[in-house]
Design brief:
Keywords: Hydrolase, Metal-binding, Pyridine nucleotide biosynthesis. By secondary structure, this protein is α/β, with parallel strands linked by helices. The protein has 4 helices and 6 strands. The longest helix is centred in the N-terminal third of the chain and has 13 residues. The structure holds zinc ion (ZN).
Length: 188
C-alpha cells in the first residue's frame, strides 16, 4: 500500500464518516466505500508514526433527525446513535488515541462538515495543526463540506481523492473545481 503523504507533527489526518451505513450494505451506501479501508488504514499508520493527529468523524444522529425523509429531510434514516449502522467500519484500524468527533447530534440541525458545530477547528489550532489531510465519505457531501470549511478555518488542506468516493459520480468534476477555487490541494 503506497503512502500518499509525508506526515509531520503539524498535520492532522481527517478520516470522514467511515461508518457502516455509508459502506456497502448500509442504509446510505456509497459505492466503493468499503474498498477505501485498506488505503485509509495505511495513511493512519503513517500519520501516527510521524506524530500527526488522527481524527475520525462520524455522523451521529438522534432518532427522528431533521435530515431524515420522514421529517422532510433529504436522506433515509442513517447513522442513528449507538446503532450498528453508525459504528465505524469494522476493518477501520483506528488507534485508541485517535480523536473521535461526532457531528449532527442535535434533532434540528444537520452538519456535513467535520468543523460544523464541533469545535474541531479551534481544537486543531490549539494543537498547533497547520495542515489537514482529508479522506473518507462521501466526496460530494461531507468530504466536500469538510475540505471547504478547512480552508475557511485557515488550514492548508489536502484531499486524498483516491481514498474518497462520491454518492453522485457526476458531481466529482464540480467538487474538484470548488476545491481548487478554495485553494485546497487535491491528490488523485
Ligand atoms: Zn447524516
Amino acid at each position: 500500500m503506497t503512502i500518499q503523504v509525508d506526515y509531520g507533527s503539524h498535520d492532522a489526518l481527517l478520516v470522514v464518516d467511515m461508518q457502516n451505513d455509508f459502506c456497502e450494505g448500509g442504509a446510505l451506501a456509497v459505492e466503493g466505500g468499503s474498498a477505501l479501508v485498506p488505503g485509509i488504514n495505511a495513511e493512519i499508520d503513517a500519520a501516527q508514526a510521524a506524530g500527526a493527529l488522527v481524527v475520525a468523524t462520524r455522523d451521529w444522529h438522534p432518532v427522528d433527525h431533521v435530515s431524515f425523509t420522514h421529517r422532510g429531510g433529504p436522506w433515509p434514516v442513517h447513522c442513528v446513535q449507538d446503532t450498528e449502522g453508525a459504528a465505524f467500519h469494522p476493518d477501520l484500524a483506528l488507534p485508541d488515541d485517535a480523536i473521535r468527533v461526532s457531528k449532527a447530534t442535535a434533532f434540528d440541525a444537520d452538519a456535513y462538515s467535520a468543523f460544523g458545530g464541533t469545535g474541531l477547528g479551534g481544537y486543531l489550532k490549539e494543537k498547533g495543526i497547520k495542515r489537514v489531510i482529508v479522506c473518507g465519505l462521501a466526496l460530494d457531501v461531507c468530504v466536500r463540506a469538510t475540505v471547504l470549511e478547512a480552508r475557511r478555518e485557515g488550514f492548508d488542506t489536502l484531499l486524498l481523492e483516491r481514498l474518497s468516493a462520491a454518492v453522485d459520480s457526476d458531481a466529482v468534476t464540480e467538487c474538484r473545481q470548488a476545491f481548487s477555487d478554495a485553494g485546497a490541494e487535491v491528490r488523485s
